[in-house]
Design a protein that fits this description.
Number of helices of chain A: 0
Order of helices and strands of chain A: EEEEEEEEEEEE
Largest sheet of chain A: 6 strands, antiparallel
Oligomer: heterodimer
Distance between the termini of chain B: 9 Å
Number of strands of chain A: 12
Number of strands of chain B: 11
Shape of chain B: globular
Structural class of chain A: mainly beta
Radius of gyration of chain A: 14 Å
Largest interface: A-B, 31 and 27 residues
Helix content of chain A: under 10%
Order of helices and strands of chain B: EEEEEEEEEEE
Strand content of chain B: over 45%
Structural class of chain B: mainly beta
Shape of chain A: globular
Distance between the termini of chain A: 6 Å
Number of helices of chain B: 0
Largest sheet of chain B: 6 strands, antiparallel
Chain lengths: 150, 152
């Protein structure tokens, strides 16, 4: 089992704004085991809560840039999954399909760690995967780190 | 190997008690849900007057009246569909019995709780019994959101 990470901000906005995707293929699927999320922009004077989700998608949308997944162990081979960050066009998320839907204060940071065998799994299909995205908030940029197993 | 599922929902706004969501055995399909992960937070903007609210996870003996169409999602898409009734948006509270978890949260907090090993919060093995996540009380109007994960 090899482990990889991708890091990125979302574009600025109120929703929906994807920060990071882990994209599978017919050969492999990402099994997301660790997500850390915070707001990268300065806190607003008017306090607010924002919501974000981790969900499956069936089309990758348009990423602001591709991100080369990093191996946590440099002795490992490169990732088979690919990754995109800072999307200008949202992936097609499965309706009603959020695996995590989290609200937090603009000054807070949240970390999800899956227990072994309870990872968030994408489908083994081209252009399918798991994305982390802003679902509601004041104008802001989400920052996320997503770690997955292959 | 147990199968894992997740669901998300929110309570209506109020000072409580208000049900956020429930997971419940179906009639005749006696597979008690076992919760291993919970996250919860208020959805509303923080109040100028700071306050705390009380969150509970309790066993239920009925489902009250929740919305239909709430979706239980498989963590692994290759698993079979959930056999648990997942509900949110309750107009009528479920009947609560044993309180398994009670946590006080600041209005700006997000709680993540997860079980140690196989020590999940387990519903009774009886038809229509289950577990509820509840915003029990708050001194200011609160709409609380939660994600729950469970095994079957």
């Amino acid at each position: 089992m090899r482990i990889y990470s991708a890091v990125g901000p979302s574009a600025s906005g109120t929703a929906n704004k994807t920060a990071v995707t882990a994209i599978g293929s017919t050969a492999i699927r990402p099994q997301v085991c660790d997500i850390t999320v915070g707001m990268i922009t300065a806190p607003n004077a008017t306090d607010f809560q924002f919501g974000w989700a981790a969900g499956r998608f069936t089309a990758v949308g348009t990423a602001g840039s591709s991100y080369t997944p990093l191996t946590l162990d440099t002795g490992e081979v490169a990732a088979t999954c690919t990754s995109g960050i800072t999307h200008s066009a949202e992936p097609t998320y499965t309706a009603g399909g959020s695996l995590l839907s989290i609200y937090q204060n603009q000054r807070a940071t949240y970390r999800f760690v899956a227990q072994d065998g309870r990872e968030l799994c994408g489908a083994a299909s081209a252009n399918n995967g798991i994305g982390v995205y802003l679902i509601t908030g004041s104008t802001m940029q989400l920052q996320a780190t997503v770690i997955w197993k292959e | 190997m147990p199968r894992s599922y997740s669901g998300s929902g929110a309570s209506g706004s109020g000072t409580g008690p208000a049900c956020i969501l429930t997971v419940q055995s179906q009639t005749g399909v006696n597979v008690p849900p076992r919760i291993f992960e919970v996250s919860t937070c208020r959805q509303d903007a923080p109040h100028a007057t700071d306050f705390n609210w009380v969150f509970r996870v309790a066993r239920t003996t009925d489902n009250g009246s929740g919305s239909s169409g709430a979706t239980a999602n498989r963590l692994d898409g290759s698993s079979v569909a959930s056999q648990t009734v997942f509900s949110t948006g309750h107009a009528v509270m479920p009947t609560l019995t044993d309180i398994l978890l009670e946590v006080t949260l600041n209005q700006r907090d997000t709680l993540r709780w997860w079980c140690s090993g196989r020590k999940e919060l387990r519903a009774l093995s009886a038809n229509n019994n289950g577990l509820a996540l509840v915003m029990h009380s708050a001194s200011q109007a609160t709409a609380s959101s939660a994600t729950v994960m469970w095994n079957e």
